[in-house]
Amino acid sequence: MAELELGRHCGVPGCRRLDFLPFVCDGCSGVFCLQHRSRDAHGCSEVNIRNNSVKPDQHRSYPCSYKDCNGKELLAVLCPYCEKHFCLRHRHQSDHECEKLDTPKPRMAATQQLVKHIIGKYNSKKNEEAKSKKHKGAKNSETAAKVALMKLKMHACGDKSLPQVSRVCFQ
Fold first, then answer.
1. Domain count of the chain?
2. Where is the AN1-type domain (predicted)?
3. Distance from C-alpha of 37 to C-alpha of 43, rounded to nearest angstrom
4. Distances (CA, A) of 34 to 7, 53, 126, 127, 170
5. Residue 171 placed within a domain
6. Domain range enclosing 75
């Protein structure tokens, strides 16, 4: 019957125990049993050489590219537009005066125009009513126009899955 080649013998000369889950030393690359797995237990010759080659606390720091800033970060903070490193204080485009500054486009331009139109229309109606009634203590016309816009939006019908910023309301 053929013998199976399972496990390895411990590398310590006095032990030579057959271990099915042997340990390999990362210093001398020897094979050892559970009892002799530590470097001290098997008298590893590579202990001092390995310990001297490893330098603890090697940290890379990323200095800020902004003029006259001495800030450093342990993690890279890259601007996606100019691809330079910055500290947390100067990480935004507007903070580090990015040469590829992406100007934000005006949002909801149509809605803002509609609000101005409604306010203008409401103010003209309000002025006519104020002249005819001569009523004191009328509400602020701008607030009233905003309320009118809110009522318009409340009764609006359409696709509710669209985000609020993409909707345009018509009278």
1. 2
2. 4-52, 58-106
3. 10
4. 13, 27, 93, 95, 80
5. no
6. 59-100
